[in-house]
Design a protein that fits this description.
Layout lengths: L10 E4 L3 H13 L3 E4 L7 H5 L3 H5 L3 E2 L5 H7 L2 E5 L12 H7 L4 E6 L13 H8 L17 H24 L3 E6 H8 L5 E3 L18 E3 L5 E4 L6 H9 L26 H8 L4 H11 L3 E4 L9 H5 L3 E4 L2 E4 L4 E7 L18 E4 L5 H11 L3 E6 L10 H8 L3 E4 L5 H12 L3 E4 L3 H7 L3 H7 L4 E6 L14 H8 L1 H6 L12 H24 L1 E8 H7 L5 E2 L5 E2 L10 E3 L2 E5 L4 E5 L3 H11 L13 H11 L4 H10 L3 E4 L4 H6 L2 H5 L4 E5 L3 E5 L6 E2 L19 H7 L4 H9 L5
Parallel strand pairs: 1-2, 1-4, 2-3, 4-5, 5-6, 14-15, 14-17, 15-16, 17-18, 18-19
Antiparallel strand pairs: 6-28, 7-27, 8-9, 9-10, 11-12, 13-19, 20-21, 22-23, 23-24, 24-25, 26-27
């Protein structure tokens, strides 16, 4: 049996290429692993594409290809595959590596799930097109997402799979292949949209439609401001600030209006925009703060980097001579495990036998425990008697809660506190998204948890962080997007800021939180200590800006910015409208660029790729519009140019491909409310040996649906349960 090593002694061999592989290496190194890097030939091309590439790779130990066999003999994890580029040899046989080294966890980064488009290039833009992700913002045209969701999602899911496989190896002594694809990375962020129900109702359809703009407005001084509704009397407060003399319901909280036009879904934009345009941003923000209306400045990329909260979170580090985003998973403390006994694994999944208590609400915290449930953990959602407010947004609730059981209890009452104590006594993981003082009052802070269950690991999901000037500020996904520059990045430098209709900070934060828990569970098993880890929406947002670097002179550099049409970052890596649809093209080398030129502008001598500008893109646009999509794709493929058709419906694309079901990207769940649910409800990472149960798993639990069952498991008699119900302690 392979001897497990604690995280700080893990050995990783990195043979991967591109951004996702580099991010995964960094996540593992930040978790304590020593990463030896054997770069594939031509890998330096990614230094040109991503200014942060050298910084990411600076956390690794360079190694020579001649030493590879020796490194693999001593390694715990090996990374292969990654982002495709014609100049880089990226593909290796992951299964053959695993066969030669039975104790090795081989993490395979691909473009798509097994048996689906195995030869299709693993390039983020092309995956956005092929999966239908590019069509998820607007109803009449695709858009290139400047925050590359497939790449970031793939990196986090690969980390999740790697730690799960390492936990499995502690029990079995055997390694395996873990596969994470760009396709799965896209699905992680689009879960609430890529699902359908057998018996949908109005609540199921309550999801932000395409074409909707959020409450982001240009001010008189040329800056932008972001408003967030949902607080009491939000509409009256906003109109009062802006001097809008219109009758308003004093109880109107500005909740999204289902069925409203895109201009009025979050609020009456035609009414609000001209009022904002008459005022300066600082005056608006001061007035909003005075009346308690959440608002934030929409800052440029890098403008927030001097904020004291980033220093408090220790988020920025010097890597390879420039400042970039560092470790985003916080650790507030560790404690030794007293006389740790053997783990009783109750099934084949890596977390079988692990009990998780999740006190979280909304998305970020609960999504972390839902990913743990996917890996076999028994997750109990613990709610107050008022319930999770996110139950009103069913698709997000489903995405974050399938596979769990639910208990509703008044934990502030003496009898409820006893229920909580019994719950904690059997927990391996305790998670919440309370503020620190609220967690202490409830008894779910690390000290209180450890007094009841000394070997429990904890995870706290926060808005800004556990300390610092913004620690007590309320957290809103779009406020943090505005502050750290994500709205600006999504819109591009030549267009207004853009809010993306999925709360992607929540999903990124939840996935990173699940990685943090797996790290702590591994440390508990191998090093005899438990960790108290935390994640924040701010940290998750900064992780999604990991490609940014600030040089010594203060200039910011990142991946190439969006063009004005939001169709790409270069004429050779861009979306193009054809005569009957859209395609995506990735001509990443001079040779491919020349071939693309000759297809679209035959008879002309190609210009060097570095000289291509907006005028060249406009000429390509004009020529592409004269082709049918399939004909142009065939011509480009014949010339050796990577290109994909832009699909228009991400869910339909999954439903049309049997491999999506075979690889458990698309899974059915039996739900009491909705009947059969179909969506991205299975583990969004694949294991070659470990069996992960995906069939006959439950949907999302109803409010208090398992209260009686769980109380009985805690030792309460039927009479005692009736008394707790009668006294209003539980529901």
């Amino acid at each position: 049996m392979t001897t497990p090593r604690p995280a700080h002694d893990l050995r990783v061999v990195d043979l991967g290429a591109g951004m996702a592989a580099a991010l995964l290496s960094t996540l593992l190194a930040d978790g304590g692993a020593v990463v030896h890097r054997v770069a594939p030939p031509g890998d330096e091309v990614f230094d040109e594409i991503y200014p942060a590439h050298r910084g990411w790779r600076s956390v690794t130990v360079p190694a020579e290809a001649g030493d590879l066999d020796e490194l693999l003999e001593r390694a715990d994890v090996c990374l292969v595959g990654g982002e495709d580029h014609p100049a880089v040899a990226t593909r290796r046989d992951a299964q053959a590596l695993a066969a030669r080294h039975p104790g090795l966890v081989v993490v395979h980064l691909t473009g798509y799930v097994d048996r689906y488009a195995p030869e299709a290039p693993a390039v983020d833009l092309l995956v956005q097109a092929r999966t239908g992700l590019a069509a998820e913002q607007y109803s009449d045209r695709p858009m290139y997402f400047a925050v590359p969701f497939p790449t970031y999602g793939q990196a986090v899911l690969a980390a999740l799979g790697a730690w799960a496989a390492l936990l499995d190896r502690v029990d079995t002594g055997r390694g395996q292949v873990v596969t994470a694809s760009l396709q799965q990375g896209a699905a992680m962020f689009m879960m609430p949209f890529w699902m359908r129900a057998e018996r949908p109702d109005d609540e199921f359809h309550k999801v932000t439609p395409k074409d909707v703009q959020h409450l982001t407005f240009r001010c008189a001084d040329g800056t932008y401001v972001q408003f967030v509704m949902g607080v009491p009397a939000a509409v009256a407060k906003l109109y009062g600030i802006l001097g809008i003399d219109e009758p308003v319901d004093p109880e109107d909280r500005g909740i999204p209006r289902i069925g409203a036009s895109p201009d009025t879904y979050f609020g009456n934009r035609p009414l609000i925009a001209p009022a904002v345009a008459r005022m300066n941003r600082d005056d608006i923000l001061a007035a909003a703060a005075e009346v308690g209306l959440p608002a934030a400045p929409v800052l440029e990329l890098g403008e927030f980097w001097d904020d004291e909260q980033l220093a408090a979170n220790r988020l920025l580090v010097d890597r390879a001579g420039a400042i970039g985003v560092g470790n985003v998973i916080g650790l507030s403390g560790t404690a030794p495990v007293p006389e740790a006994g053997p783990h009783e694994r109750t099934g084949g999944a890596p977390l079988a036998g692990i009990t998780v208590l999740d006190f979280g609400s909304y998305v970020a915290g609960p999504f972390a425990s839902r990913l743990l449930a996917d890996l076999g953990a028994s997750v109990v959602k613990v709610e107050s008697l008022t319930g999770d407010p996110n139950r009103g947004l069913q698709r997000h609730f489903l995405a974050a809660h399938v596979g769990k059981r639910a208990l509703a209890v008044d934990a502030k009452s003496p009898a409820g506190a006893e229920v909580l104590r019994r719950l904690l006594s059997g927990a391996d993981v305790v998670m919440h998204n309370f503020r620190p003082k609220a967690a202490e009052r409830l008894g779910v802070d690390p000290t209180s948890v450890r007094a009841v269950k000394p070997d429990a690991v904890t995870l706290q999901s926060l808005a800004f962080g556990p300390s610092g000037p913004r620690a007590d500020a309320p957290g809103f996904d779009m406020v943090i997007q505005a502050l750290i520059g994500l709205l600006r990045r999504a819109g591009g430098p030549a267009a207004p800021p853009l809010w993306i209709r999925t709360p992607y900070l929540d999903y990124a934060g939840g996935a990173l939180g699940a990685v943090a828990v797996l790290m702590s569970l591994y440390e508990r098993r191998t090093a005899g200590r438990v960790g108290d880890r935390w994640l924040s929406l701010l940290n998750a947002g900064m992780f999604l800006l990991s490609d940014l670097r600030r040089a010594a002179d203060g200039t910011m550099r990142g991946a190439p910015p969006l063009d004005a049409a939001r169709q790409g970052v270069h004429p050779g890596e861009r979306l193009y409208r054809t005569g009957d649809g859209w395609i995506a093209v990735a001509a990443r080398t001079e040779e491919a660029a020349n071939a693309m030129w000759r297809v679209l502008l035959p008879g002309e001598e190609p210009q060097p790729r570095a000289d291509w500008d907006d005028a060249v893109a406009a000429r390509f646009d004009e020529q592409a519009s004269r082709w049918r999509s399939e004909e142009l794709l065939a011509a480009l493929a014949g010339a050796g140019v990577w290109a994909e058709l832009c699909r228009t419906d991400g869910l339909a694309e999954l439903l049309d491909n049997p491999a999506s079901t075979a690889a458990h990207v698309l899974v059915d769940r039996a739900d009491d409310r909705y009947g059969r649910l179909t969506g991205c409800f299975g583990p969004l990472v694949n294991f070659s040996r470990t069996e992960i149960p995906v069939h006959d798993r439950p949907g999302a639990p109803g409010f208090g649906a398992h209260t009686g069952q769980i109380l009985a498991e805690l030792g309460y008699t039927e009479a005692e349960i009736e008394e707790l119900l009668r006294d209003g302690v539980v529901r």
